[in-house]
Structure formats: C-alpha cells, structure tokens
Design brief:
Layout lengths: L1 E5 L5 E5 L2 E5 L20 E3 L5 H4 L2 H8 L2 E5 H9 L3 E5 L4 E4 L2 E7 L12 E7 L2 E5 L9 H7 L4 E5 L8 H11 L3 E5 L11 H12 L11 E4 L1
Parallel strand pairs: 3-4, 4-5, 5-6, 10-11, 11-12
Antiparallel strand pairs: 1-2, 1-13, 2-3, 7-8, 8-9, 9-10
This protein binds nickel (II) ion and manganese (II) ion (MN).
Length: 223
C-alpha cells in the first residue's frame, strides 16, 4: 500500500513499505501543519526551490534522519555544505533510484538561491507516477510532460499570486492528463485563499479528471 500524507501548503510525504519521500518539508511556521518535524523520518527529501515555505525544515530533518536531499545542484550543494547527504540533479535530468525514478521538470518561479532555478519533480514511486509541480506558473510544455510520462497523480498549486491560480491549474490538468489531480499551495495564508471545491468542479466538468482534495493532517491511499 502506498500512502500520501499531506501536512498543508506543498508539504507531502509518500510512504510505501517503510520507504518514504518528503516533498518540500515546510513544517515549522506552516499554519496548516500539526505534525512535529522532529518526529518525521524519511529516506529522501525532494526540494523544489529554496523559498522558506519549501526548503522549510529540510536541513534539520536531513541531518537527523540521514535522508538524502534530491534537488537542483545549487540547493543540493547548499545542503551538502550543511552536512546533509544530497543528490544533485538539474532540469530535464532523470535518474533511477531504488524506489523508481525522479525526473526534474522546469518550474517558472524564483529559485530562492543565487544562480539556481526552481523545479518540479515527476517521481515513479514503486510504479505510481506522481508529478509534484512545485511553485510554478502555467506553461505550455506541461503538455509535453503529459506525453513523456504517464502521470497518475498531479499535485498542482492553486493558490494564485505566487503560482498558478485555480483557472490556470485547471488548464495545467488538461495538458498533463493525469489520472487524478490533488490541489496544493492554498489557504496557508489569506493571500492564497482559494476554494478547492470550485477548482474540483471546474476540472471535473471541463476535463473529466477527478480531483481529490486532501485536508492537511490527513492522508490519501494511492492506487
Ligand atoms: Ni516559492
Ligand atoms: Mn511557495
């Protein structure tokens, strides 16, 4: 069984048979989170960019749990300098890991670190393909990503202001053609308040793709 835990904002953990990946581990100061980051263990941490609401608790968790940080080279190197294990990749690169594979996708957003670039991830996790878009605006090559990878779950930001809003995220779903869409990066603060229910009905009526709204602090069983 594979489970996807949501801690609010863009912080997810996917777990299968005791192997787990954390995406953008923003626990401390995340208004939606109720989990104690000191109790979070994982094998890999995937960091989309270095803004505080994404790099988050990466260094503390990686140092304590010995998790390997997977990110763009600039952020992987920053983590390595702080004593973390890391695996540097970059846009367009794909690599096999014991759990499956990771492809680094472009994300149209700031990197939060000099010289870097924000990214997203398409992860094959024990046969389930998850696209974690990171913070990004809408871009037409999402259609290409949908052709290159058969995406099961697309985790898309809908908060607007810093990233795609609900209308653009619905367009993204139409291009990516995932089996299921999960909204993220909304309702953390008033500036990114959105109705996930309105997003769900828009995507389901326009594209016939089911949207699963996951409440912070709950989990979804992936199949
Ligand atoms: Ni950001
Ligand atoms: Mn963000």
């Amino acid at each position: 069984m594979t489970q996807l835990h949501y801690y609010g904002h863009s912080c997810f953990q996917v777990i299968h048979n005791g192997v787990s990946l954390l995406f953008d581990p923003f626990f401390t100061n995340n208004p939606l989170n109720t989990a104690n980051p000191k109790k979070i263990d994982c094998n890999f941490i995937l960091v989309s960019h270095a803004h505080g609401d994404h790099l988050g608790d990466t260094l503390d968790i990686a140092q304590r749990s010995k998790a390997v940080v997977i990110s763009t080279a600039e952020i992987a190197n920053l983590c390595a300098q702080q004593g973390c294990s890391s695996h540097a990749m970059h846009l367009g690169g794909k690599h096999k890991f014991d759990f499956g594979s990771v492809r680094i996708t472009p994300a149209f957003h700031g990197s939060g670190i000099p010289g870097g670039h924000a990214c997203g991830f398409i992860v094959d996790f024990f046969g389930i393909v998850i696209y974690f878009a990171g913070d990004t605006g809408l871009f037409g090559d999402m259609e290409l990503l949908g052709r290159l990878e058969k995406i099961d779950y697309a985790l898309l930001p809908i908060g607007d202001n810093f990233t795609m809003g609900p209308e653009d995220a619905a367009e993204a779903a139409g291009m990516l053609k995932p089996r299921i869409v999960v909204p993220m990066h909304y309702n953390t603060w008033p500036l990114i308040a959105q109705s996930p229910e309105a997003f769900k009905s828009a995507v389901e009526s326009r594209f016939k793709i089911p949207v699963q709204i996951v409440s912070p602090g709950t989990k979804l069983t992936l199949a």
